[in-house]
Specification:
With 147 residues, the chain is mostly helical. The protein contains 6 helices and no strands. It has one domain: Four Helix Bundle (Hemerythrin (Met), subunit A) (Up-down Bundle). 70% of the residues lie in helices and 0% in strands. It comes from Gulbenkiania indica.
Length: 147
């Protein structure tokens, strides 16, 4: 048990620290988003019943997602859209709208975490969908095409 806790602590520390080591804000936010996605995608497999539901494991994933969710948003300083970036200029020209989308997403993540802690599968499915919709709406408005 102690070894699992140490491993989880190191994983979370690495996930939060890795973006800070990136050379550019674009690389940092991509790293942070991919780290978050590696937690979110396995939860989707469970929600879609392609993997078995294990309450404790799912609750830990949701708590980890909550810890990681705000991290990517630290790496959108003005002027950070470089040649590799898919960030649309609207992130900065419509900053209040971007902040609202971020808040909706983080609120949805909080809701998923709360549902996961109860084990209510219907609430989990609904909350997972709200997080996924938060991702999609932000991508639709603020993320450009593949380069």
């Amino acid at each position: 048990m102690k070894q699992r806790l140490y491993a989880l602590a190191w994983l979370m520390l690495g996930a939060v620290a890795a973006p800070a080591l990136a050379a550019t804000p674009t690389e940092a936010r991509v790293t942070a988003f991919k780290t978050m996605l590696r937690t979110f995608e396995p939860m989707g497999l469970v929600v879609r019943e392609q993997e078995p539901y294990r309450k404790d494991a799912f609750a830990k994933q949701a708590a980890t997602l909550k810890t990681l969710a705000a991290e990517p948003f630290k790496y959108f300083p003005a002027g950070s859209a470089d040649a590799k970036s898919r960030a649309k200029p609207e992130i900065w020209s419509q900053a209040p709208r971007f902040a609202e989308a971020r808040t909706r997403f983080l609120t949805a993540v909080d809701g998923l975490n709360a549902a996961a802690q109860t084990g209510d599968r219907a609430a989990i499915r609904k909350a997972y969908g709200e997080v996924a919709q938060g991702c999609k709406s932000c991508h639709d408005a603020f993320r450009g095409p593949e380069k």
